[in-house]
Amino acid sequence: MWPEELFTDLVGDRAAEWDRTGRIPLDTLRGLGAKGLLCAQAPAAHGGLAFSSRRNGELTAHVGALCSSLRSVMTSQGMAAWTLRRLAGPEQQAALVPRLTGGELAAVAFSEAAAGSDLSALRTRITRDGDEVVVDGAKVWTTNAAYADLLVVFGRTEDGAGAVVVPASAPGVRIERIEDPLGCRAAGHADIRLDGVRLPADALLQGVDRTPALLVTTALAYGRMSVAWGCTGILRGCLTAAARHAKAREQFGVRLADHQLVARHLAGLLVAEQSARRACEHASDLWDEGSPDMVTAAVLAKHVAATGAARGAARAVQVLASAGSRDGHTVARALRDAKLMEIIEGSSEICELMLAQHALATAG
C-alpha cells in the first residue's frame, strides 16, 4: 500500500473528531512512527524510508489535505530527525534516529516566552557539570511535546548555544498541554518546564558550541519546508471542498459555480494551490541537489504557501458559507490551521524581511 493510501484509510473521517477533542490516539502516532512515516527522509540505515525532500513533500501535502494536526506531528518528528542528522555525532545519530523511526515520538523545543523570532533572547541554560549537563529553562508552544518521548531542547551554553536531547520522563521535566490552541488543535502543543534536569554529557549534541541563529536555522530549514508542503495540502483540500460545493448547490436557478464572483474565489484557490506547489517543488529540488540556494527557497515556499493557505481558506469558507462554518468542517479547520501556519517556523513578517535581505544582497 502506498503511504498516501495508508494515511487516507487511517484518517478517514476522524480528523474532525481529533480537532474537537484535541487528541490523536497515541497508538496511531506510534504505529505511523514505527513505519518510518513520520520522518520519511531519515536514512534507511537508521530505519527510515530515505525519501527525497520532493517525495516527502508530496506525502506531507497529502496528509496536510487530510489533517493539519497530524501533518504538524510529522513536521515535528521530521524536524527532530533532521536536527539529529545535522548536529549529532555518528554515534549519537546511530543511537537516537532509529528511536524516531521505531515508534518513539519527538518534539523540538526552541521558542520561549521572550524568544520567538529574536533568537538572541534565549534564556534556557545548558550547563556542563563534570560528566553531566544540567538544563534549566522554559519553552512555549512546542508542537508534539504532549505526545513526545524525547525533547530536542535548544539553549545557551557557556560559550554559545547548543541542543540537548531530554527524555520527557526525566526528573525535573514538566509538560503542560495547551488545551485551546487556535489551530492544529490535536498536534500536542505544550509548554515545557526544565528545572535542574541532569543528563549524561553525551546528551548534548556533539558538544560543540554554536550561535543560537545557526542552531535554530538548522532545524527551521526542515520545518519551513514541511509547513510549506502542508499548506499546499490545506489549499488542495479547500479547493476540492469549495469546487464540489459550488458545482452541487444552486442559487437563483443556476449553479453556484456559474456566478462570476463565486468563480473568482475558485480561480483564486487554484492559483494559490498551484503557486504554493511550484514554490515547494522548486525548494525541494534545490534541497535534494544540496544547493546553497535552498535556504532562501525554503523561506519563499513557506511564505507563499502559508499566506496563500490563509487567504485560500477564507475564500473556501466564503464559498461554502454556513455549510462550511461548523466546527470541525474541513474548511473551518483549514481557516484556523492556516492562520497558525503564518506564525510558526518564522512568521510571515520575518519571512518577508529575510526575502528582502536576499533581494538586497543579490542586487549588486
Q: What does this 3D model show about the protein?
A:
The chain is built from 11 helices and 9 strands. The chain is an alpha+beta fold. The strands form 3 sheets. A 4-stranded antiparallel sheet has the order 2-3-7-6, with no helix packed on it. It has a 3-stranded mixed sheet with strand order 1-4-5. A two-stranded antiparallel ribbon has the order 8-9. Helix 7 runs antiparallel to helix 10 (330-341) and helix 9 runs antiparallel to helix 10. The radius of gyration is 21 Å and the shape is globular. The termini are far apart.
Question: Which features would summarize this protein structure in a list?
Answer:
alpha+beta; 4-stranded antiparallel beta sheet; 3-stranded mixed beta sheet; globular
Helix content: 40-55%
End-to-end separation in angstroms reads 51 Å
Q: Quickly count the helices.
A: 11
Query: Within the largest sheet, what's the order of strands?
Result: 2-3-7-6
Biggest β-sheet description: 4 strands, antiparallel
What is the strand tally? 9
- Rg (C-alpha, Å): 21 Å
The proportion of residues in beta strands is 15-25%
Mean pLDDT: 94
The oligomeric status of these chains comes to single chain
How would you sum up the global shape? globular
What is the helix/strand order? HHHHHHEEEEEEEHEEHHHH
Question: How are the elements arranged and paired?
Answer:
Layout: H1 3-11, H2 15-21, H3 26-34, H4 53-66, H5 68-87, H6 90-100, E1 106-109, E2 125-129, E3 132-142, E4 150-157, E5 160-167, E6 173-177, E7 190-200, H7 212-248, E8 250-251, E9 254-255, H8 260-289, H9 294-320, H10 330-341, H11 348-361
Parallel strand pairs: 1-4
Antiparallel strand pairs: 2-3, 3-7, 4-5, 6-7, 8-9
Helix pairs in contact: 1-4, 4-5, 4-7, 5-6, 5-7, 7-8, 7-9, 7-10, 8-9, 9-10, 9-11
